[in-house]
Inverse folding.
């Protein structure tokens, strides 16, 4: 089984926002989850965002992965992650994911701690030709600049029916709604 990351420059290792649509966002070499760069969202009074269109086939679901941190000790602004589906004429077909990281739920990068998000989209509807991922902050007075790194949209081919569930052992907590705190 082959897993393909549809995002181009998701770790910002080009040192630029090449392949991303963006506003009030820069690439920084001061902080990174992996590699040498991350994207930095400017705090209030601006909405900051990055977005990217990727090819997608009807019926496919994607795993959304991204790592987040904030700069300094001020509260983090809320961050929103959306995935929407479009046909070949760029008509909106529907939403595949909408998730929010609430205000002050992102760790400070000063401790080299990042919040890793893992979310799964709904299957793409008929006639889907592309998906759009949008990651953005909402302006909040007195909030810290946010960081995002290692953005990925993973598609695994459908391999057929799922088999019977096997025995399971004890597992560790991953946090609410698939969030994992990485230190």
């Amino acid at each position: 089984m082959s897993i393909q990351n549809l995002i181009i420059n998701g770790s910002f290792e080009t040192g630029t926002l090449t392949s991303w649509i963006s506003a009030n966002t820069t690439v920084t070499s001061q902080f990174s989850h992996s590699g040498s760069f991350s994207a930095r969202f400017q705090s209030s009074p601006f909405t900051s965002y990055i977005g990217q269109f990727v090819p997608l086939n009807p019926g496919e679901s994607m795993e959304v992965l991204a790592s987040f941190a904030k700069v300094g000790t001020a509260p983090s602004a809320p961050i929103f992650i959306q995935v929407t589906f479009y046909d070949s004429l760029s008509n909106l077909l529907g939403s595949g994911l909408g998730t929010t990281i609430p205000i002050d739920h992102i760790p400070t990068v000063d401790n080299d701690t990042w919040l890793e998000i893992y979310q799964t989209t709904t299957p793409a509807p008929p006639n889907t030709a592309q998906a759009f991922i949008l990651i953005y902050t909402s302006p909040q007075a007195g909030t810290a600049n946010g960081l995002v790194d290692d953005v990925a949209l993973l598609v695994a081919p459908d391999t057929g029916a799922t088999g019977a569930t096997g025995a399971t052992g004890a597992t560790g907590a991953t946090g609410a709604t698939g969030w994992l705190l990485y230190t």
